[in-house]
Design goal:
The complex is a heterodimer of chains A (333) and B (329).
Chain A (H helix, E strand, L loop, with lengths): L6 H14 L1 H4 L18 E2 H22 L5 H5 L1 H11 L14 E4 L5 H11 L38 H15 L6 E6 L6 H12 L5 E7 L2 E2 L2 E2 H4 L5 H7 L3 E6 L3 H9 L7 E6 L22 H17 L9 E2 L7
Parallel strand pairs in A: 2-3, 3-4, 4-8, 7-8
Antiparallel strand pairs in A: 1-9, 5-6
Helix pairs in contact in A: 3-5, 3-6, 3-12, 5-6, 5-11, 7-8
Chain B lengths: L6 E2 H15 L3 E5 L3 H4 L2 H6 L4 E3 L4 H13 L3 E7 H7 L1 H10 L5 E5 L17 H6 L5 E4 L3 H13 L4 E4 L4 E2 L15 E4 L4 E5 L4 H13 L4 E5 L2 E3 L3 H11 L2 E8 L4 H12 L4 E6 L9 H7 L4 H16 L5 H7 L2
Helix pairs in contact in B: 1-8, 4-6, 9-13
Classes of the chains: A alpha/beta (333), B alpha/beta (329).
Chain lengths: 333, 329
């Protein structure tokens, strides 16, 4: 495996990781997993994850506003999914991004780069202050993710559908090397209109890839309009079932449900989490609209959006609800 | 042992791939329902665990190859040349070339070598596509000895490689002692007054043309540029600097392949008379392989005529408009 990161960068990242210490704000406890190194893995609770998802939305909003370019609608719909994948489910080690037995998260819907980069930086793959360089000339935070530039990015993405195929190949390869690692792939709904997604689905079922989970961010809006008008996808649940997937239909903004769906094992079958989400989730004037697929907020809209997201963040107060503790599953090595 | 009887190049590839599988446990093979055609069946039989058939789904073929490489394997993905660069063009660009994954793209049926299936199954543009993709190493194999020798080198090279093969029956043009290095052109004939630059199985015709030229008192140098990218500009410029008259011969459209690569190099560094022998920007048709090559301008006589023409142009300075005006009575 080519190492995607230089040592200097690793050191910088470590410093940032310690300073930022996002994970330690969750009730964290590391465990031993994998064959090489114990990855950082917190025990976390649903409220903390939910709060983190709102923080990622704030990050994404600032990035797109700063760059005057980027995709907010599909970033906001995926915030809880990405948060739960990175901060609850996946076994990763930001100090060792090339760790052979790390879980792989493929973000096939590469246009949700803002929320994706926000998550990667908070995991500790690169300094948080670098988020401000999003979509700037010379930045490692390209308009769409580039695996050669940014540590933590498993595969360059953006052209829709391709991530599904790479995820299938990677799951095949990991199983062949008897790795305990799992592969997750975040897909957009409009994205599944691409033929390659279904080629990949057939292949995943043929090879009974129990180590693969597709997570479908079903926000029901694509660039030019509602999915059901542009190119109807329903019945999605039955489609994926008939392609051989173990389908779990959930509320994609309910962290508890995401956790449960991610924890369900289907050893002989690839999984599909059909996550019902809201495009632009969290900012009333952005919600359920194609207009905010790639629009940049004005300064007034920015202020209003920030205020709404902060209110949402504050509404999830661990002080008011007894935390439901969710145990992160340890890797059996 | 040298292959002196006609044998399909793909058959040797199949054998060499299985041998590579035995020698290098990192090698995996992906095919798209074409194992009968690409001859990956030998590998499949010996290493079924490391062989994957994705069915008639070339986009996914490329993506699965890229994914396997991310898990630390050295995937060889196989199917028809045109499908790899056109149907699977975006996965090839994004997941292999742009993402610089360690995928070996092996193109069967290069050029006219799928002759009876007609123009849709003939790859006359594949090299133009892969040449324009950054990070790619592009190799065109000419004979059995070369395929056997280059395969382990291709596997060991870190990064994406496009290896163009052929279904054509060929005899060896290299003897057993020839050593190959990726990126290094091979002088097959030296000391000529005109330079023939070529690669792939059509090299047999180029050598015949060189023989005919020699018989008529025109010794020709022959340079084999098996690695089309990165181009061995140093070797080409050194050779052409001596002859200052060049013919390129390729089983490909003259747009975008070897002829273009050489023309670009010479136009910037050493403008001399050049003729590109190859497919003249048109589609082929169904027919016997050798006859198709003759019919579409890649006959031995076409090469000879092109060599004579560039020599005439060189000697009358016709390429220099200033001199041409002076020389015109």
């Amino acid at each position: 495996m080519p190492l995607l990161i230089n040592q200097k960068l690793v050191n910088q990242t470590l410093v940032c990781y310690q300073e930022e210490n996002v994970l330690s704000s969750l009730s964290s406890k590391s465990f031993v997993g994998g064959c090489q190194k114990p990855p950082m893995k917190p025990l976390s609770d649903v409220q903390s994850l939910q709060r983190l998802a709102w923080k990622l939305r704030l990050d994404a909003l600032k990035m797109v506003f700063g760059a005057k370019s980027g995709h907010l609608g599909g970033s906001f719909s995926a915030a809880e999914l990405i948060t739960t994948l990175y901060f609850y489910k996946a076994h990763l080690d930001p100090r060792n991004p090339g760790w052979e037995d790390r879980d792989r998260i493929f973000v096939s819907k590469g246009h949700c780069a803002p929320v994706y980069y926000a998550a990667l930086s908070r995991v500790g793959f690169f300094p948080r202050q670098e988020l401000a360089t999003f979509r700037q000339l010379g930045s490692r935070l390209q308009g769409h993710p580039d695996r050669l530039k940014l540590p933590g990015v498993e595969m360059s993405s953006g052209p829709l559908g391709l991530g599904a195929s790479a995820a299938v190949g990677c799951a095949l390869g990991l199983r062949l090397r008897r790795s305990p690692a799992r592969v997750y792939c975040l897909l957009g709904d409009g994205e599944t209109q691409e033929g390659i997604v279904w080629e990949s689905a057939m292949c995943a079922a043929k090879y009974a890839l129990g180590n693969l989970t597709f997570v479908l961010d079903y926000n029901r809006y694509q660039l030019s309009g509602p999915v059901e008008r542009v190119m109807p996808l329903e019945p999605l649940e039955q489609k994926w079932q008939s392609f051989g997937f173990d389908v779990r239909r959930i509320d994609g903004h309910d962290v508890g449900q995401i956790v449960e769906a991610l924890d369900r094992d289907s050893p002989e079958q690839p999984g599909l989490i059909l996550a019902l989400t809201v495009k632009g989730k969290g900012v009333s004037f952005m919600e359920s609209s194609s207009a905010w697929h790639g629009r940049v907020p004005t300064p007034e809209e920015m202020a209003a959006a920030q205020q709404e997201i902060r209110q949402n963040l504050e509404a999830v107060s661990p002080a008011h609800d007894a935390p439901q503790t969710v145990a992160a599953p340890g890797r059996k090595s | 042992m040298n292959v002196t009887q006609s044998k399909q190049l793909r058959a040797t590839y199949g054998e060499a791939l299985a041998e590579l599988g035995a020698a290098d446990s990192r090698v995996v093979v992906v095919d798209a329902d074409m194992a009968e055609g690409t001859m990956t069946g030998g590998f499949k039989k010996r290493f079924p665990e490391r062989f994957f058939d994705v069915g008639v789904a070339e986009q996914n073929l490329m993506g699965v190859g890229a994914g396997l490489s991310l898990a630390g394997w050295i995937p060889f993905v196989n199917t028809f040349a045109w499908l790899l660069v056109l149907r699977a063009g975006d996965p090839l660009r994004t997941l292999v070339s742009y993402a610089r994954t360690n995928v070996k793209v092996v193109a069967g049926y290069g050029g006219f070598s799928g002759p009876m299936d007609g123009a849709t199954h003939q790859a006359i543009m594949d090299l133009a596509v892969v040449r324009a993709l950054p990070n790619m190493t592009v190799v065109v194999a000419s004979d059995h000895h070369q395929v056997r020798s280059l395969l382990p080198l291709v596997a060991d090279l870190e990064g994406p490689v496009y290896l163009r093969l052929s279904r054509a029956e060929v005899v060896d043009v290299h003897d057993e002692s020839t050593r190959f290095e990726l990126g290094k052109a091979i002088p097959l004939r030296t000391g000529g007054v005109v330079t023939l630059i070529s690669n792939g199985p059509i090299l047999g015709r180029v050598l015949k043309a060189a023989d005919l030229l020699a018989e008529s008192g025109i010794p020709a140098s022959v340079l084999e540029v098996h690695t089309l990218k990165p181009l061995d500009g140093e070797a080409i410029l050194a050779e052409v600097g001596r002859t200052r008259a060049v013919v390129t011969v390729e089983e490909h459209n003259i747009i975008g392949g070897l002829g273009s690569a050489v023309a670009e190099l010479l136009a910037e560094n050493l403008p001399v008379p050049l003729r590109r022998v190859g497919i003249q920007d048109c589609y082929g048709e169904t027919g016997p392989y050798e006859k198709l090559l003759d019919l579409y301008g890649m006959g031995v006589q076409d090469i000879v005529a092109a060599a004579e023409e560039v020599l005439r142009r060189r000697d009358s300075n016709l390429c220099d408009p200033q001199l041409r005006r002076q020389n015109t009575p």
